[in-house]
Design a protein that fits this description.
Blueprint lengths: L1 H31 L17 H7 L2 H34 L5 H13 L2 H12 L5 H8 L16 H25 L2 H12 L4 H12 L1 H17 L2 H6 L11 H11 L3 H31 L2
Helix pairs in contact: 2-13, 3-7, 3-10, 3-12, 4-7, 5-7, 7-10, 8-9, 10-13, 12-13
Length: 292
């Protein structure tokens, strides 16, 4: 017993070391948010809630927070629903070539956000983009379709690109749930009894994959709160500040304006919002695991 405990400590020590660094950096960031660090030279003198008050009085912060909430509302549900429907069709109706179709849907997930952002920025280009070119060929007037150049719809264009990239991720998780031993047997029995289509999906599949829904929703929500790459590549936060999100606002504040303490305060807000999602999810996951 002592020998096994010793080996466990040896093998787990790298993990504990990495976790220690992560927790140290988290508490260090929280501390920095209460200091007066502006510019390249560190300044650790305490400034209280100065930067939190500054942040709450900034229009950029409220626009960023609103956009992050918009990501949560508009991004998660369509991605999860599309992922479920496509996984359902692939699993039950496509017998031949299922692996080929799955690879096609998974391909966007394999791309980096920089590649995705560049690709969709080109698609949305008002002058030479593929989207306006196709619409023009179909006879539509595209003179007023600015897409990511229009502050009223630019954020929705970014969310559409993210849905395209993350649908494959949702498909994989839902297919894993559908292929679970007991559920697969239930589906096969229901098919034998004549259940099909909407009734099979509504009354058998959806009630039995609630855990998959929780996992998909939680992971997509975390992505929504930390989204940065697509905004940086496609719009740089523009037009104006219409597509600012908290992560991009933190980046601009910290590295461009060199207001390090303000950037730390913004990161604390992102961390707090993430905890609102992670803590209930962790509780649900642990409860489910312990009750098995």
């Amino acid at each position: 017993m002592k020998a096994s405990f010793k080996y466990a400590i040896i093998f787990l020590s790298p993990l504990f070391f990495i976790l220690g660094i992560l927790y140290f950096m988290t508490f260090w960031t929280i501390y920095i948010s209460f200091t007066d660090w502006v510019g390249m030279k560190p300044n650790y003198s305490l400034a209280g809630l100065k930067w939190y008050e500054y942040m709450l009085s900034s229009e950029k912060f409220w626009v960023s927070l609103k956009n992050n909430i918009l990501w949560l509302l508009v991004f998660i549900a369509p991605t999860a629903v599309l992922g479920l429907l496509i996984a359902y069709v692939l699993e039950l109706y496509i017998v031949r070539g299922e692996s080929v179709y799955r690879a096609i849907f998974l391909y966007p997930t394999a791309l980096s956000f920089v590649v995705t952002g560049t690709l969709w920025a080109w698609i949305y280009d008002p002058a030479n983009g593929v989207l306006n070119s196709i619409l023009s060929a179909l006879g539509f007037d595209t003179s007023k379709l600015g897409w990511i150049c229009d502050p009223n719809i630019a954020i929705y264009c970014l969310i559409a690109a993210a849905i395209w990239q993350y649908t494959g991720f949702a498909i994989v998780l839902f297919q894993s749930a559908l292929r679970g031993g007991y559920l697969k047997n239930i589906i096969e029995a229901a098919l034998v009894d004549g259940a099909s289509g909407w009734k099979l999906l509504r009354y058998i599949i959806i009630p039995n994959i609630r855990s998959a829904f929780v996992i998909v929703a939680a992971l997509l929500a975390i992505f929504s709160l930390k989204v940065f790459d697509l905004v940086y590549v496609m719009t740089q936060g523009g037009p104006g500040i219409s597509t600012y999100v908290l992560a991009f606002y933190m980046y601009m504040t910290t590295f461009w304006q060199q207001m390090v303490s303000l950037g730390a305060a913004i990161s604390v807000v992102i961390f707090s919002l993430s905890m609102i999602i992670i803590i209930p999810y962790s509780y649900y996951a642990l409860k489910r695991w312990l009750l098995r």
